[in-house]
Design goal:
Elements lengths: L1 E4 L10 H9 L5 E4 L9 H9 L2 E8 L5 E9 L4 E5 L1 H4 L17 H13 L3 E6 L9 H6 L3 E3 L18 E3 L11 E6 L11 H5 L7 H18 L8 H13 L2 E4 H8 L2 H4 L5 E9 L8 H11 L3 E9 L13 E4 H7 L4
Parallel strand pairs: 1-2, 1-11, 5-6, 6-9, 9-10, 11-12, 12-13
Antiparallel strand pairs: 3-4, 4-5, 7-8
Length: about 350
């Protein structure tokens, strides 16, 4: 029996590689480990391994505007930069009491893009997920020279709430190299920018927003859409960075999981597999928004494979995933008991 073990990281506890090794313990037969990522935490390592790139560090500001050293990747052969935004403005980079989606900024992402361009990048892979921000990529845009102006022609402040004052977008001073660079935007979720299923309503509470904050941020994001546009599938990824990358970088937004799966040649890998096992830290209703296990399950099902999912915990709504795309769902604990029966 051939089993392909293809999980993403279990946030805060295991990397994708560690999760794959843990799940594989006790499986008899041929086992292929395929650590994955969806654009969020761990994407840099997965892509560096697949594309054979090197890790570098550079200075950029975090979500609260504080300078820090952040890792990024570069593939010399193809002049491709890999920027995982979670390393820059990620929520995992903040202490719990520091969460502030109303004022958090993606400015550091723009700084890292400029670093990549200085390095000679012809292609930039932006891995979106795990952000502490809700600013539609406005900070990123400001860092690369896009002017976001209020009704008096003044630059708006950084942060999601400031979008309520947006009246004009001027890209005349945007770094000219951006027009000559290909931006591939790998998004961890497919949510749009606004609405009940948009970035703010679905994710802002996890980033520290109160109910009042959610309403104010949604109004600000709606103003952004009225002025700049960007209410597109994947636009809501990373607090709206998907939309910002599409609007201000002419980036091509896509499913981060599908992008990584294509890079790892997933379809070829599972061609002769008897079972595919995927997983993440928590399986719940949000898993269906393009998260790694869901996309892995869908692609494996299209290939006629049996698919199991393993999670650190089973959250609200996970039952909807049973049958489509998962034949069975386990916690790590129950999987340890099941694996010996394979």
């Amino acid at each position: 029996m051939k089993v392909v073990v293809a999980p993403q990281s279990f946030k805060g506890t295991m990397t994708a590689e560690q999760a794959a090794e843990r799940i594989a313990v006790g499986i008899a037969g041929e086992v292929v480990l395929l650590p994955l990522a969806d654009g969020g935490d761990g994407t840099l390592e997965v892509l560096l391994n697949v594309l054979r790139g090197d890790k570098h560090t550079a200075i950029a500001v975090d979500a609260l505007g504080r300078e820090k050293e952040a890792a990024w990747g570069y593939v010399d052969e193809t002049r491709t930069a890999i920027i995982e935004i979670a390393r820059i403005c990620g929520i995992a980079e903040l202490k719990y009491g520091e969460y502030d989606p109303c004022h958090a900024t993606s400015y550091g992402v723009g700084q890292m893009i400029l670093t990549a361009l200085d390095f000679g990048a012809a292609t930039v892979i932006l891995a979106l997920g795990g952000s502490a921000t809700n600013d539609a990529g406005a900070g990123m845009a400001q860092a690369v020279g896009v002017a976001l102006l209020d009704s008096r022609g003044r630059e708006i402040d950084r942060g999601g709430l400031a979008l309520a004052n947006l009246a004009e977008v001027n890209m005349s001073q945007r770094d000219p190299r951006i027009a000559e660079t290909e931006f591939l935007v790998a998004c961890d979720v497919n949510n749009r920018l606004i609405g009940e299923e948009g970035a703010t309503h679905v994710y802002a509470r996890q980033k520290g927003a109160t109910e009042e904050d959610v309403e104010r941020l949604e109004k600000a994001m709606t103003r952004f859409v009225e002025v700049a546009g960007g209410d597109i599938p994947y636009g809501g990824a990373a607090g709206g960075l998907g939309a910002g990358a599409a609007l201000f970088l002419n980036g091509r937004v896509m499913s981060g999981v599908d992008f990584v799966l294509d890079q790892t040649e997933f379809d070829s890998c599972i061609k002769d597999a008897d079972l595919v096992v995927t997983g993440e830290g928590s399986l719940d209703a949000q898993t269906a928004y393009g998260k790694t296990p869901y996309v892995v399950g869908k692609r494996a099902k299209r290939a006629g494979k049996c698919v199991y999912a393993v999670a650190g915990r089973l959250g609200k709504g996970y039952e909807a995933l049973l049958g489509d795309p998962f034949d069975a769902v386990y916690t790590l604990e129950s999987w340890s008991e099941q694996v010996h029966r394979l």
